[in-house]
């Protein structure tokens, strides 16, 4: 084999490997925050992040969507999960949660509270918002007066506003659709 052909093959292989690594999304996702329980929030910064994610051997959803964060949070903090859904809006209609340590026939009913109720959500409740066509979902990290602090994922690429929350909402905010009371 000539020296020219050998150099050409080496250059071709190097370029091929560089392109392959770029296309497969072999990169560290952007970390945006962390709950007090240690669940990390990421930003879905690439179309290559639309791959399934698993936590403790359980499917949590597509990297790094808001629904994936909520499922991972529930598995990590309450040992609960829920059936697959298309998006946050369809998630609101789930009637039950399932403990990850049981078979799927063991169900825990979900209580959905409308955002129009006079009640307040509690820390750890799953809260739903209007956001484009798919909605958005997060975890209530605390309540102070009429302010709701929410941890979520894939809302914005910025780091969270506070130590354990992504954003705050007033209780009367029209963006709040409702929440699962857990």
TrEMBL record:
Instruction: Tell me where in this chain the Peptidase C51 domain is found.
Output: 59-154
Note the InterPro entries from the entry: CHAP_dom (IPR007921), Gsp_Synthetase/Amidase (IPR051705), Papain-like_cys_pep_sf (IPR038765)
Q: Name one GO molecular function term.
A: ligase activity
Could you tell me which Gene3D superfamilies the record lists for this protein?
Answer: endopeptidase domain like (from Nostoc punctiforme)
Q: Which Pfam families match?
A: CHAP
Q: Which SUPFAM superfamilies match?
A: Cysteine proteinases
Name assigned to this protein: Peptidase C51 domain-containing protein
């Amino acid at each position: 084999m000539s020296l020219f052909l050998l150099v050409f093959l080496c250059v071709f292989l190097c370029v091929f490997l560089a392109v392959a690594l770029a296309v497969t999304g072999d990169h560290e996702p952007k970390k945006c925050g962390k709950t007090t329980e240690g669940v990390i929030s990421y930003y879905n910064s690439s179309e290559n992040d639309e791959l399934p994610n698993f936590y403790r051997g359980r499917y949590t959803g597509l990297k790094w969507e808001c629904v994936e964060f909520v499922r991972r949070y529930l598995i990590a903090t309450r040992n609960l999960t829920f059936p697959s859904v298309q998006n946050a809006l369809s998630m609101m209609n789930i009637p039950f949660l399932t403990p990850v340590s049981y078979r799927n026939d063991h169900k825990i009913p979900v209580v959905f509270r409308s955002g129009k109720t006079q009640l307040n959500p509690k820390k750890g409740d799953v809260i739903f918002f209007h956001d484009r066509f798919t909605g958005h979902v997060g975890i209530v990290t605390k309540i102070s007066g009429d302010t709701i602090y929410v941890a979520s994922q894939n809302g914005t690429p910025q780091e969270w506003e506070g130590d354990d929350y992504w954003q705050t909402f007033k209780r009367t905010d029209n963006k709040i659709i409702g929440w699962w009371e857990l």
